[in-house]
UniProtKB/TrEMBL annotation:
<feature type="domain" description="N-acetyltransferase">
    <location>
        <begin position="1"/>
        <end position="134"/>
    </location>
</feature>
<dbReference type="InterPro" id="IPR016181">
    <property type="entry name" value="Acyl_CoA_acyltransferase"/>
</dbReference>
<dbReference type="InterPro" id="IPR000182">
    <property type="entry name" value="GNAT_dom"/>
</dbReference>
<keyword id="KW-0808">Transferase</keyword>
<dbReference type="InterPro" id="IPR050680">
    <property type="entry name" value="YpeA/RimI_acetyltransf"/>
</dbReference>
<keyword id="KW-0012">Acyltransferase</keyword>
<protein>
    <submittedName>
        <fullName>Acetyltransferase (GNAT) family protein</fullName>
    </submittedName>
</protein>
<dbReference type="Pfam" id="PF00583">
    <property type="entry name" value="Acetyltransf_1"/>
</dbReference>
Length: 134
């Protein structure tokens, strides 16, 4: 597996699969290098998208690994890669969140993320906010 910044050639792959982002933001996220693409033999197999909480703390918004590639450690690999990038850019803390009814919270805690708060939206499960010092 190889991890790269997404390029315009990845646009349709992301558009087709990422249902949690407004379509008009995909190109700007690509241009700002805020989407990492996972590739296997040159083929896209997943992505990780991030932004900035309070415009000053890297916040991982989404990790997606295509079904047939899950369970092989690629999620941990892309998170570790992203944390290293953020550290190299001078950041000391990174954040993410997950819904309380999702198993991803255990994945993040295993990687050293700690609960720092929560968000309750109407008709949605509790959103757990996690943070990690890098």
């Amino acid at each position: 597996m190889k991890i790269d910044f997404a390029t315009d050639t990845d646009y349709l792959y992301i558009l087709d699969r990422d249902k949690h982002i407004v379509e008009t933001l995909i190109r700007s996220k690509i241009n700002e290098k805020e989407i990492l693409i996972l590739r296997d033999e040159g083929q896209e197999i997943g992505w990780m998208r991030y932004g900035y909480f309070w415009d000053n703390t890297p916040f991982m918004n989404m990790i997606w690994i295509d079904e047939e590639y899950r369970g092989q450690g690629m999620g941990e690999e892309v998170v570790t890669y992203w944390e290293k990038l953020m550290s190299e850019r001078g950041f000391k803390t990174v954040m993410t969140s997950t819904q309380s009814n999702e198993g991803a919270q255990h994945f993040y805690r295993k990687l050293g993320y700690r609960d720092v708060g929560c968000l309750l939206q109407e008709n949605e499960p509790l959103e757990v906010i996690l943070s990690k010092q890098i």
